[in-house]
Amino acid sequence: MNGTGAVSELSEITAILTLAAGPDGTSTTVRFGFPYPLVGFNLNTGDAWAAGEGNLSGTWPTVWYHTLDNPAVEGLCRRLQQKIRQAAGETTPWIDYITLKLLAQAIEETKSTESDALIAHFEKQTQFDIMKARKGYFRSWDHQLVQEAYPFTVKAKADMKDKWDHAGARRRRAGAS
Q1: Could you read off the pLDDT of 14-44 as tens digits, one per residue?
Q2: Strand order in the sheet with 59-62
Q3: pLDDT (tens digit, 9 = 90+) per residue, 81-123?
Q4: What span, in angstroms and rounded, lies between the C-alpha atoms of 117 and 126?
Q5: What share of the chain has pLDDT > 70, as a percent?
Q6: Inter-CA distances, 74 with 23, 50, 131, Å
């Protein structure tokens, strides 16, 4: 809180709570002139695009973006662009691709398609290549995928090459920490 009074502090708290509503809540704060920079938790590119051009600001973490300096990412994006004929920056295709890739690897390594065998394999915290500098793995106690997240600052509308170019994300080289 910035210490300029209860109204200001309440507004800052509201900014954080509004983000829980997703892109609709974010675009609503912009439409009604909410003057505070926005920050939040994992924001997938589809959610950022849904907010609409000029309706998102601030710095956010995301689990993936299409400009990672990694040959596998570049290849996936190239194949997606050829197939769907638009920017390949949306997070969902990467999630779908990695999910199938992890499952295929687990089936190959366990020689089984039985749920219990696959779960036991994942619970050993087996590491997987997920097209990032560090490999990912599932935590045994809550089955969450442990992976790198990347910060990005939303570009000003005037700096965007097209409507998909919202993230001023830093390129990270494969193998960088």
Answers
A1: 444 444 445 455 555 556 666 666 666 777 7
A2: 59-62, 150-154, 167-169
A3: 888 766 666 777 888 889 999 999 999 999 999 999 999 999 9
A4: 13
A5: 66
A6: 27, 24, 10
Minimal CA–CA distance to 44: which of 173, 170, 174, 166?
A: 166
Say if CB 127 and CB 171 are below 8 A apart: no
Considering Cα of 21, then 40, then 129, then 118, what sign does the dihedral take?
negative
**Who's near 2: CB < 8 A, 6+ residues apart?**
8, 9, 12
- 106 residue type, one letter: A
- Residues 25 and 46: their CA atoms lie apart, in Å, by 15
Map tokens 């299409």 to a residue.
66
Question: Phi first, then psi: what are they for 26, rounded to 5°?
Answer: -65, -50
N-terminal to C-terminal alpha carbon distance within the chain = 32
With contact defined as beta carbons under 8 Å apart, do 121 and 106 qualify?
yes
Place of tokens 């509503």: 21
Two tokens at 93?
């295709």
Q: What angle is formed at CA 16 by the lines to CA 12 and CA 17, rounded to 5 degrees?
A: 115
Let me know: does 166 contact 56? Beta carbons within 8 Å. Answer: yes
